[in-house]
Amino acid sequence: MSIQLTESAARRIRQQLEKRGSGLGLRVGVKKSGCSGYAYTLDYADAVEADDAVFEQHGATVVVRRADLAVLDGMTLDFQKQGLNEAFKFINPNAKAYCGCGESFTT
């Protein structure tokens, strides 16, 4: 089981943690939501729990609940800037379809 980070995503995670002044990484997960089934969740990770998996690349840490790994395994997390818009992008080989609004996905 693995989660990959691009250098751009790792840089953004480090910048956000530095700006915040605390935290050990980014917590990535999924929740049941939307018309397709799942939506991604992002939060700061301040601690690693017993049921967490930890992935480190390019000097940044991503924490994922083991229960979410079935949906997120093999995903690459990227950070992209396009004009005035900037956001994390989830490149998930497990996502088979996305809803029209882009809010949720199905596996």
From TrEMBL:
<dbReference type="Pfam" id="PF01521">
    <property type="entry name" value="Fe-S_biosyn"/>
</dbReference>
<dbReference type="GO" id="GO:0005829">
    <property type="term" value="C:cytosol"/>
</dbReference>
<dbReference type="GO" id="GO:0051537">
    <property type="term" value="F:2 iron, 2 sulfur cluster binding"/>
</dbReference>
<dbReference type="InterPro" id="IPR016092">
    <property type="entry name" value="ATAP"/>
</dbReference>
<protein>
    <submittedName>
        <fullName>Iron-sulfur cluster assembly protein</fullName>
    </submittedName>
</protein>
<dbReference type="InterPro" id="IPR035903">
    <property type="entry name" value="HesB-like_dom_sf"/>
</dbReference>
<dbReference type="InterPro" id="IPR050322">
    <property type="entry name" value="Fe-S_cluster_asmbl/transfer"/>
</dbReference>
<feature type="domain" description="Core">
    <location>
        <begin position="1"/>
        <end position="103"/>
    </location>
</feature>
<dbReference type="InterPro" id="IPR017870">
    <property type="entry name" value="FeS_cluster_insertion_CS"/>
</dbReference>
<dbReference type="GO" id="GO:0016226">
    <property type="term" value="P:iron-sulfur cluster assembly"/>
</dbReference>
<comment type="similarity">
    <text>Belongs to the HesB/IscA family.</text>
</comment>
<dbReference type="InterPro" id="IPR000361">
    <property type="entry name" value="ATAP_core_dom"/>
</dbReference>
